[in-house]
Amino acid sequence: MKIRNAKSWAPSGPERWVMTVAVSLLAFMVRMALEPVLHGRFPLLAFTLSTLFVHYRYGLAPALVSAVVAFPVGVYYFLPPYGEFGPMEREDVLTIIAYILLTGAFILVIQRLRRAQYRAELLAEVAESRYLMLLQSDNDREAAERELKQLHKE
Q1: What does the pLDDT look like over 14-72, one tens digit per residue?
Q2: Beta-carbon-side half-sphere exposure of residue 61 (alpha carbons within 13 Å)
Q3: What is the DSSP letter of 85?
Q4: Dihedral sign from CA coordinates of 113, 11, 46, 87
Q5: Among residues 55, 56, 48, 54, which one has the least CA distance to residue 31?
Q6: Fewer Cβ atoms within 10 Å of its own Cβ: the N or the C terminal residue of the chain?
Q7: What's the pTM?
Q8: Which of 22, 31, 118, 121 is nearest to 62 (CA)?
Q9: Who contacts 28 (Cβ-Cβ below 8 Å, separation ≥6)?
């Protein structure tokens, strides 16, 4: 059965955008707090995790905005030279490529899984409503048969 609105699994409204900003700020603060320990290693990991959480809860559009905004923020604050955009070294390029590929792959997987989950929920609701209609029809038929039997007995 074709379910046309399985793509619309994410909630709508301003709450998802407010939460996207909040989660992104939280990721920035966590990464900033871990900077003395990490020293430039895994500069975009917190942002990838926040993007995946945003996508799982609030949908594709907020996740893409989160990923696009987090990328320059992570590069600016957590890749040496800190606080500026300088010449890129080989490790920086590999980090950026890994961020783009991994975040994109995870977004794709989450999108497919959430659509499948929502489609299954919609199909279950359709099946339940059809079952209830079948029960109602069966009850109506039995009532009509009883009424018909009553008429023939009289």
Answers
A1: 999 999 999 999 999 999 999 889 887 888 899 999 999 999 999 889 999 999 999 88
A2: 11
A3: -
A4: positive
A5: 48
A6: C
A7: 0.72
A8: 22
A9: 46, 47, 73, 77
